[in-house]
Amino acid sequence: MLRGVRRTTLAVTALLLLLAVAGPPATAHDPGTPEGKAEQSELLRIYEPTWRSGTRLAGAPVTCVNGMADRYPCKNVDLLSFLPQSALGGGGSSSMWYWTDSRDSNEYILYCRSNGVSFVNVTDPGNPRYLGNLPAANGVSSSWCDIRTYQNYAYIGKDSVANGIQIFDLNKLRGVTNTQTFTADARFTGLTNSHTLWINQSTGFLYVSGANTCSKGLTIYDIKTPLTLKLAACYNREVYSHESIVVNYAGPDTRFTGREIAFNYTGQGKRFQILDVTDKANIKVLSSVTHPGASFIHQGFATSDYKHMIVNDETISTRGGSPEFVYNIERLDAARYVGKDVATRGEFVNHNGYTVGNRHFQAAYRGGLRILDTGSAASAVLPEVGYFDVDPASNASGYSGSWMVLPYLRNGVVAVQSIGVGLFLVRPTGSAAVS
Length: 435
Description:
This protein has two helices and 31 strands. It is mostly beta strands. Strand 6 and strand 7 form a beta hairpin. The N terminus is likely disordered.
């Protein structure tokens, strides 16, 4: 079982010590800068830890008892299964996404790695099955990979290398019983690299952030013909777009009901923006706000009622607790900063977060999965009701551990990725479960 997994201590260079204490400089996520190149070099080293073999865990779930699930600290979260990186195609790992086959309701995790994408059937979360690997274009490798889906297609981008956007027909996963090496169905080379992707399922537009196009702003493509990307717009009024979450709006500000709204996070631009992108030829900035001491406004996700936005700042100091920043977005053209929820659970760095119901699921690097109650978001109070810590040795700042968590699988199952370590499937229980 997992108790037998041997972990070796990673050697830490002077650069990593600096990052652990103060966080990377504000331009660290932009590989076009010297800081970004230095960070990438360090991440390529640290994201592939020397303990790789690991131990597969499958079968009966491991219940969280007295604060532990096997060797992992936990609170109200049971461990269902674990696949080590060595069983997922090797390399490092970063983002991931999910796909549900509309024909048979099978569920899949699309697991982004430095040198490809792994496809995992997680229909039975106690016994996930690795189906195979889609190699990166031309054998390139990058610490930053992102993936999203539209209809039955996956779109894959990588930063700092010439990957373009690979497009893969997910129907190929049906009926796979033997591990395969897959090939892409198309590759878009109208851009070289990209940092993050988002797809509005309702409109068929792909939003690309941090690419070599559009001055690293927000590049928009029409993908309604899924194997073809047609340039639709460029928003480059900020120095950088790190990520955008785009929806057909159905929140409390009824003036914008049905409009296509982008929540844009500008990284070193230190702004959280709300954009009306309905008219691609006339993108309008509705709000552009920030919080005190902003350093790298990384990503955020709205509460389920769309009254508040929970935002993470990747390089702000976490001494005394890792903060989340809350904005009131009840009026899209008058967003305002409410305050920060300062956690007392460790100095780890918050990364991608997603909201389901009254719970916000946060990937928190060395803090693993953290689950926050959003009921008091109006007061910037986000009590922690559950967690699953993939790095038992430390809750300090730093950039190993969980990059991404996905709370969208059936029966409350959450996928938790650990950089270069593997894929955990867990289930929140009790007060941590969505209600």
